[in-house]
Amino acid sequence: MSKTTFVRWLGALAALLISPLAAAQDAPLGVDSVSVGYFGEIVWHPGLSVAAEWTLVQGQREKERDRGPKVITRSLVAGPELAGFVHPRTLTALQLGGLAGYRKVRTRGFTREYWVGAAVWRGFLGGDTYTLVDGQAQKVALAGRWAFAPSVALGLGQDLSRARTPHPVAWTVRPRVTWTAPTNASTGLYVILELNLRLTDLSGWMR
């Protein structure tokens, strides 16, 4: 991938980040949740993610039943994310980007989510890295590379604000697949398992 193409990818990422955030300024719900979670590459290479979330569009359907109302909420959400993981002695990766997704929450809080994302990705090689300068080996500080990293994810979890004893917290298990380009590897493919804890209903005290 040429530098020009890479710059175009970065421009697309900027558009992805800016457009939902600009729309969120006029959204009635505003900034409404933050999340923190485990971000494990191939499950056991540990990492951490932190994200904020805006609800852009939300709809709710209610149906009366003998045992209580059936309530289903559907939302389109978006926001920025900072995440990273450590593959010991091989790679440390950081990424800053945005996610946009669809969330469906059922009466008792069972949640299903679908996500797409894009990020600027920075990988740092593990161990010492050297380069030849005038025939002499010189150590390279923070050796690694930049990349563009699109991703897709599926989330399943529980929104405890719908529980019989409600709490403004939701948890989600979210498998994610991320690609990186340009890459020197054969695939540039990373499989991530996220375990997220999301603090909901923040609009009141964040204003």
Detailed description of the structure:
The strands form 2 sheets. The chain has an 8-stranded antiparallel β-barrel. It has a two-stranded antiparallel ribbon with strand order 6-7. The chain is built from 2 helices and 10 strands. 27% of the residues are buried. It has helices spanning 3-24, 203-206, and strands at residues 31-41, 47-63, 70-87, 91-105, 110-125, 130-133, 136-139, 144-159, 169-179, 189-199. The protein is mainly β and 207 residues long. The protein has a single domain (3-206), classed as Porin, CATH 2.40.160.20. Strand 1 and strand 2 (47-63) form a beta hairpin.
**How many domain regions?**
1
Please state the CA-atom Rg, rounded to the nearest Å. 20 Å
In the CATH hierarchy, the third-tier topology is known as Porin
SS class = mainly beta
Oligomer: single chain
CATH class: Mainly Beta
Q: Count of DSSP helices?
A: 2
The best one-word shape is: elongated
The total count of strands amounts to: 10
> How is the largest sheet built, in terms of strand order?
1-2-3-4-5-8-9-10
Which architecture would the CATH scheme give at its second level? Beta Barrel
Roughly what percent helix?
A: 10-25%
Major sheet: size, sense and barrel closure?
Answer: 8 strands, antiparallel, barrel
